[in-house]
């Protein structure tokens, strides 16, 4: 095999709680991760010219060691002494810096594709062990589906599939720094935490309505005051038939959960008309 391709799915957080700040400065989280059918596409081709060459459709993205795809490819090439060259084409559709783990899923998919292309025979567990060296979300992006993520994001428990539904994604142009969000997060005895355990119970019982009622993201307490448009988008989705609406990750992406495709499509048009230049998209969960 000289060439292979792979789809890298985005994720949303159905729930995101921060438990505490550890002594080493990292935050301990408890998150429900869910893959969605919104994909970047990676095409990997062996080449006789040594080295890694990355190209992408987004001119502002780095194509050197600053790109997580390049980093993940280099990690495996160095470890396994791969002397062939590698051409990687990255076609991005997942919005960048959006809270949908775009870079992490690209890195995870690059490792999965290289495992196949170079016949490395690494199990998913072994790929995850290597992936976590580059980013805490990469092991989840290798696992995909519905999962509980704990620790700093590296402790994963697969969950049953979340109930079927339609997902409206709306990402305003707002720029949000994840570092700003975590460094301004207040954790004390007054903090109201989302109830992740109840959400897990709803997933196990396939109860979409109760799941939506319990969705919560603690990072909204920092991001929304700084970017009130996120609250407007959430309310717009709820007023237009969403069973629940939440910010994903540290933002600015907002998603709404619908039990009806037509309602989701109609809400998409309303969100598109808001003055925040939103990328809007209706999709569903990726199993
Ligand atoms: P998360 O949800 O994990 O916080 P995100 O969706 O907010 O991630 P990314 O899309 O991964 O953020 O991009 C964050 C930064 O990482 C960007 O500023 C970008 O320059 C850099 N980056 C490196 N590699 C990639 C990649 N393959 N795709 C997108 N961004 C990348």
The count of strands amounts to: 11
Query: Main β-sheet, in a few words?
Result: 7 strands, mixed
| Secondary structure: helix percent | 25-40%
User: Whole-number average pLDDT?
Assistant: 97
| Estimated share of beta-strand residues | 25-35%
Low-confidence stretches: none
Question: Helix/strand-derived class?
Answer: alpha+beta
The small-molecule ligands in this entry are: adenosine-5'-triphosphate
What does it look like?
The protein is of the alpha+beta class and 287 residues long. 33% of the residues lie in helices and 29% in strands. Strands 1, 2, 3, 4, 5, 6 and 8 form a 7-stranded mixed beta sheet that branches. A hairpin with a 6-residue loop joins strand 9 and strand 10 (254-258). Helix 1 (68-79) runs parallel beside helix 2 (102-117), helix 2 (102-117) crosses helix 3 (124-131) and helix 6 (196-204) packs antiparallel against helix 7. The mean pLDDT is 97. The structure holds adenosine-5'-triphosphate. Adenosine-5'-triphosphate binds next to helix 1 and helix 2.
